[in-house]
Design brief:
The protein is built from 6 helices and 4 strands; from the N terminus they run ααββαβααβα. The chain is of the alpha/beta class. Strand 2, helix 3 and strand 3 form a beta-alpha-beta unit.
């Protein structure tokens, strides 16, 4: 059990728009680390903040955030047990983006760029076919902004998870982070078949390699 209040609970009791976790930083008065700037791979190489009061605070060291280190440990445990982790997704809101590594740099592409991009584009096309919602597809740094220490960069670059993605769901800014309840089910309806496609694709690829 965490020794500090979970940030999810905090959003219900104190600040609906709270972004970071609620983990204290020694010597700082401001609470919390941005868990999507704290992963080890290419940590602190741009697109994050060293200021504890900033919403994009990267933490005092890689994997300072227990949430990030725990997910990484889980992936590594699965791999140590001989299980291949085929895909990873980090789902956020908002902006309607279907993104892939790299986030830490806008220069250069991942070795699997064309294949990972093609799967993301097909998933975005499936999303659009349901309710007409359009997602922009591409590398994190090129599509939105530079962001080092992200989970998608780490799972691809350090854990070797080929199909690593980062999504920003509805909308484009009219409601922003406070999407009205009536849009929640449609958002799920369009995302579900896209992930069915991704799962089928990566499973088929895994079978071909066996």
């Amino acid at each position: 059990m965490l020794a500090w209040p979970a940030s999810y609970d905090y959003t219900w009791t104190n600040d609906r728009m709270w972004r970071k976790n609620r983990q204290p930083t020694p010597g700082a008065t401001c609470i919390g680390t941005d868990t999507n700037r704290n992963w080890e791979y290419q940590w602190n190489t741009g697109g994050s903040s060293s200021m504890p009061c900033n919403d994009a605070y990267m933490g005092p060291e890689p994997f300072w955030a227990v949430e990030a280190s725990s997910v990484d440990a889980y992936i590594r445990q699965l791999q140590a047990e001989g299980l291949e982790v085929l895909s990873y997704s980090d789902i956020h809101a908002y902006s309607q983006l279907f993104m892939m590594p790299w986030g830490y740099t806008c220069n250069g592409e991942i070795p699997d760029h064309d294949e990972v991009l093609a799967v993301a584009q097909e998933a975005a096309d499936i999303i659009r076919s349901v309710h007409g919602t359009t997602f922009t597809v591409g590398p994190i740094c090129q599509v939105i902004y530079q962001a080092s220490g992200s989970s998608a960069d780490h799972t691809y670059g350090a854990n070797g998870v080929k199909y690593s993605y980062a999504l920003e769901l509805r909308d484009l800014g009219r409601y922003g982070f406070q999407l009205p309840p009536e849009y929640i089910v449609p958002s799920i309806e369009e995302l579900y078949p896209a992930y069915v496609y991704i799962f089928q694709h990566v499973l088929n690829e895994g079978r071909r390699r066996q």
